[in-house]
Design brief:
This protein is α+β, with helices and mostly antiparallel strands. It has two domains: 177 residues, Gyrase A, domain 2, CATH 3.30.1360; 58 residues, no CATH class. Strands 2-3-6-4 form a four-stranded antiparallel β-sheet. A two-stranded parallel sheet has the order 1-5. Helix 1 packs across helix 2, helix 1 crosses helix 3 and helix 9 packs parallel to helix 11. The longest helix is centred in the middle third of the chain and has 24 residues. The radius of gyration is 22 Å and the shape is elongated.
């Protein structure tokens, strides 16, 4: 039992994603065969062409590239937000079938910021709920899948693990919402980790990915965080870092 933090890993992705996207896009405007188009794409720097697709809002070819992530150290609270992104595939550790043995949980930063006494109080509360869970598992042991009912006393803070796949177009939409400072802190941290991972393997595709303020004006209106320059600087530094390491 203990505290966990967001950890995101890129498990798999479309091989040569930018080549696949550019080939699909050029096919729309060419009478040549696919092999010929692909050969031409592979022989050129296609970063400007990819940017042109994005600028033209010709985004359907971008859907041909997909990315699969493994995510650990996130709460069930985050899961409720994440699954609102319906153009994605999710496989999640089940609380019905997997009995919680080592109860891990997420501590919100604002609680940690209150100091050690507040953090200790929070951890005691987590231990209390873990005890409730273990008690109900024991009482329901004779029944079929007793842990599926015992889980009702587990908090939103309980850790979950998941595998998630999104295509590049949906990822761009995801980053526009979840990298924003207005997004909840936990899913925002996960989104920035994911953005760093995809920038490493597809820098041209995700060069300008992130919240709306990265590409222009803030989309939040009066609800803006007022820190657009800070967000742009973070995204730019991340793009430059991953390009150097690619």
């Amino acid at each position: 039992m203990g505290q966990v933090k967001v950890k995101t890993e890129l498990l798999q992705y479309t091989s040569n994603p930018e080549v696949v996207v550019a080939t699909a896009a050029k096919l729309c405007y060419s009478d040549a065969g696919i092999a010929e188009i692909r050969e031409g794409v592979e022989s050129k720097d296609i970063s400007k062409f990819i940017q042109k697709l994005v600028d033209m809002n010709h985004l359907s070819p971008i859907e041909h590239a997909s990315f699969t992530f493994g995510v650990e150290g996130v709460s069930r609270s985050l899961l409720a937000q994440l699954t609102r992104h319906r153009i994605a595939s999710f496989s999640v550790k089940s609380q019905r079938y997997v009995r919680v043995k080592d109860f891990n949980y997420v501590i919100p930063p604002k609680i940690e910021a209150l100091g050690e006494e507040a953090k200790a109080e929070y951890c005691r509360q987590m231990e209390t709920m873990a005890g409730w869970y273990r008690s109900w598992v024991e009482k329901l042991e004779a029944g079929e899948r007793g842990n599926e009912d015992a889980r009702f006393v587990l908090p939103n803070a309980a850790e979950t693990k998941l595998v998630m796949t999104m295509n590049a177009r949906e990822l761009m939409h995801f980053f526009s919402l979840r990298c924003c400072n207005r997004a909840q802190w936990e899913i925002r941290e996960m989104a920035w980790q994911m953005l760093e991972l995809v920038l490493t393997v597809a820098p041209a595709l995700f060069k300008n990915a992130g919240p709306a303020c990265v590409r222009g004006a803030c989309s939040e209106g009066r609800m803006s965080c007022g820190r657009a320059d800070e967000v742009r600087a973070r995204q730019k530094a991340l793009a430059e870092k991953t390009t150097k390491n690619a």
